Amino acid sequence: MRRPKILTTLKTYDRNQFVADLIAGTTVAMVALPLSLAIAIASGADPATGLVTAIVAGFLISALGGSRVQIGGPTGAFIVVVFGVIANHGYDGLVIATFMAGFIMLVAGYFRAGNLISFVPEAVVNGFTIGIAIIIATSQLKDFLGLAVENVPADFLEKIPALWAARESLSLSALLIAVLGVGLIVVLRRVAPRVPGLIVAVAICSALVIFLGLPVDTIGSRFGALPNTLPAPHIPDLSWARIVELFPSAVVIAFLAGVESLLSAMVADRMIAGQHRPNAELTAQGVANIGSALFGGLPATGAIARTATNIRAGGKTPVAGLIHAAVILLVLLLAAPLAGYLAMPALAALLMVTAWNMSEPHKWSEYAQGRNSDKFLLLLTMVLTVLVDLTVAIGVGVAIGLAMRLNRRKSVESDWTEPDR
């Protein structure tokens, strides 16, 4: 079924639900604001593209999606892919790949491919998620430590030596702000879980940088002022050669967006005892990525952390997601210059915490006690993600995982006997 969930929920919508959605949507927007900026920067894109993606894609995912409470936007899982596409094909190449990925997901939704998520081995998902978390964390070491490195290599095996070579340029001010940011995020999450701790922590750290005059980079000092309007939509400059060149990247974006959005929707189902519509969700992801590309944004998908925040804040229907997008748009229109004061080490701290949470350390003991085949698959996918390429990691992981699953199903013993000749 591809019918958007919002059509079902609005039939019985009332004032109490709107108040709950208003509070939840505003809360999620305060979480999504700094995250969207940080994810865009870590991806090698302009910070404003993160806000554009959260507004356009976030609105479309909630308006057309198959989940009551899913919140969409740019996510940490895309940092690796986006960084690689921009490095190899330019930002215009990323926009084209995102545009194409949207159509791939529309086709997948039309043919009801949402149900195929069950065939992706869980160990593969866990492996590439931990691998992405490692890459995100290492990508933030430069700003976390305030290292003076002109261009940090994208390759993991080249990045670590480059960062180590610049160790003497470590900035104590940047490190203290980053450590304070991590501490505030962790403490606020435990002491006041309903407070949007991410933006509060980043704001406090950034205020300290400004008032104490610390020699620490900010968004403004590195990227200049953020625009206070949405860009005009335009169709990417497509050519046959460009389509062929970027098709593999589009497939990876579509696969990752589909898997993460459906996983997020399944997590949400468990939290609210609900039932999402996987093919409607895939269709919504397709439209959202097309929309994001038209406005020059990043790839988008359902965000597990923001969806969980929405549920905990009392979100009841997709209207909360629409409000989340509207609030970010208001901030962009009215307060964009303030984002220029946000300190880079504070945003690095935010992504460090995000990477730690992505790796789900509370599940590590469960992984260690699992089947040897699952542990092997997880480690293989993780290592390939970090050292080789996400595309290779997913392809190899899924192929080996399905082979293992088929092998385990050969439980019926053959009654064949050698004929008497």
From TrEMBL:
It is found in: Membrane. The keyword Manganese does not apply. The keyword rRNA-binding does not apply. Pfam families: Sulfate_transp (PF00916). Residues 18-379 form the SLC26A/SulP transporter domain. It comes from the Bacteria. Its main location: membrane. The chain crosses the membrane at residues 21-42, 48-64, 71-87, 93-111, 123-141, 170-188, 195-214, 246-268, 326-356, 376-403. Keywords: Membrane, Transmembrane, Transmembrane helix. InterPro entries: SLC26A/SulP_dom, SLC26A/SulP_fam. It is a multi-pass membrane protein. This is SLC26A/SulP transporter domain-containing protein.
